[in-house]
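Journal club prep, notes for RB
We'll compare a predicted complex against what the paper describes. Inputs for the zinc ion case:
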Amino acid sequence: MSRSSMKIKFWAFGVHPLPRPHTVKYGGNTACIEVKLENPDRLIILDAGSGIRELGNHLVAGGAFKTGLKADIFLTHTHWDHINGFPFFTPLYIPGTQVTVHGPIAMENHSLEKIVGGQLTYYYFPVQETDLAAKIGYRELKEGHYDFGDGLTVQVQYLNHPLLCLGYRFAFQGKILCTGYDTEPFRNLFCTDPSDPGYDPVMAQEGEMAALQENQRIQHFFDGADLLIHDAQYTLEEYRPAKIGWGHTAVETAIETGLKSHVKRLALFHHEPVRTDQALDEMEQTFFPQALNRTWTFSLPGKEWKSTCEKTHQKKLKFFIHMTMVEMKGAFLKSLTVEGPTILR
Ligand SMILES: [Zn+2]
Ligand SMILES: [Zn+2]
């Protein structure tokens, strides 16, 4: 029996579809990631942003239409940059295609089908959903654990975004893939300024604890992932204070989350549309060395310690060992491969 594997390909990296000369390396489409499981074969697509059009054409060129394409599309949420490619997914127009769209539970009486399939109405698009050749099913997910057969399990976690947004933890043949976009760290929602008339020390402390617990829950959700694909829309300078509450993470925080969650590999995803290839390269060169060279504080119940990357490495703790490409080549690429240019460590 041949070895099982999970292959991941990024078809998009941004927030707006902006293909242009200075986005040819990382791409200018919006969220879409292909996850191909082998033995048994399963096609999973994470989000249906404008990148799904390219993926669809690639699948059709590869002969997917001959046997009938079966795919599971997992939507993190229904913001437009994550669903706007759905009507342009060519396999939907080919008889024999079967697609199941998984996504967040209904909000305010708007079902997943109404929001996603609703793009295929005369107001927005010349083709109606009922005219499509494919069989399309919808499945609404809540926080919890799901078994999708063939040894594939998926854990769902609510993230911190203005609209209900799902983080996914896919497990297949011992490999773990996690998504953590669109999201930002949970924060204290109560007033923390003692000079403010609305300040209540008890509420302020409770808010602090609640935020800490939520953030630890997210770290636990990502724990030990072979690959974490994380929101990295801003830098800390851009995030604070202007973009707090917009539901996206600073690149420095994304790296910190990856480190604290002991992930083996981190992909920075969902970039600010103004970024060019050069700007993304510069971000990688700036923020990864900064993260690896600084002193980190770690805590476990009853214990807290500080460590730099080097010392941690010497102690053979997991935190940083797998954060280098060299380490990962041996440990990771044999059965979980990642294609497509991305900022990946
Ligand atoms: Zn969003
Ligand atoms: Zn988004």
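Talking point for the session: Residues 309-336 have pLDDT under 50 and may be disordered.
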